[in-house]
Amino acid sequence: MIFTEKGQKPIIFVALTLSFVLSLFWLQWRHDLSLPTSVNNITQAVKKPTSSEKKATPPGSKQTALPEESLKALQNETLGFEKVYVINLPKRTDKLDAIRVAASVTNFNLEVIAGQNGADMSPKALPGPFKEGAQHDATVGCWRSHMQAAHNIVNNRLSSALIFEDDADWDVSFRSQLLNFATGSQWLLDTPSGSVPHSPYGDDWDLLWLGHCALTPIETDPRRVLFENDPTTTPFKHRFNVGNIPDMSHYDNTTRIMFAVNGGTCLYAYALSYRGAQKILFHLSMSYYNKPVDFGIHDMCHDHSRNFRCIGVFPQMVDSHRGAGSSSKDSDISKGEEQVRKKGFSYNIVRSTRLNVGHLIDGEMDKIESQWPGEVPEMEEDLKITFREKFVD
Q1: Rg (CA), the chain
Q2: CB of 163 within 8 A of CB of 271?
Q3: Is the pLDDT of residue 268 over 50?
Q4: DSSP SS3 for 183
């Protein structure tokens, strides 16, 4: 069953060894290149487990030590992928400026995929008759823009690419989050202990779903990766999702989980492998298709006959930003009642990069702000990562 977010309940945990040397090496590397290191000063060390902690593995849980070499590519300027893309309508220079600066203070590079205007597309280019109405052109344009991202991956024979929509936002410690995510995805993908996969996120995946507005696990796959004592986890009462989500009542307020994905909605940030991009183009462009693109991605994960392997995280690591000023700027697909904001906000992001970009540019680490001051408790213990084969009450 799928539940909405209610309740809090602590869960037994196990510590996993992760090397802080990786973060130190990254800082030194950035320094050697004379690039800003401000955001890296916020990265969170993961405590190495003591011998007594190593013995305290609860039933249904598993520990795996990853070689540092398997995570080394996370240090690069494309976050461990071959490319990082952002989809942006050429007329929305405001959105491109904003995400460019956010990426710059997080020290990664973006390449732009020009968003498509559905009104300019020939009906003959569509894989099916999209629903007519006020949002027809925007829906078609959004679909084709994401197909173009997959097209670029296949055309350039990229092993993988991370794709952002241009209103995406992430926590100031995004790189540390990706280190944790890679650790979890390698385990969920059954990476042999001690081996070094081609991708730091593991091999044999089609899609990694980092930013969404709802996500559900495969019910027949009980495996979970738990990130406990995670200060970047959005408090329960501030979580906002549109669609079905995991039952989080078994976990406390500062636990994030990873799992094999059954389906989801919204595409604020996701990664495709080369094989995943091929499958997206085949099923959503070459075959009959006529729905919003995120519905199609949902179907790809949900229909197991397509052998499309999806890994995701909840609460999400990337979500959408709503800037200061007129709310009419928020979306190029839907239009709501216009309002004027004096200050922007981001859904489900504790320490928003966009809201803290001024502090990050100036290196004012002591001024980094939470969207919910005082509501995210100080962590008395370091981040714990548990690999759970099945649910343990």
Answers
A1: 20
A2: yes
A3: yes
A4: helix
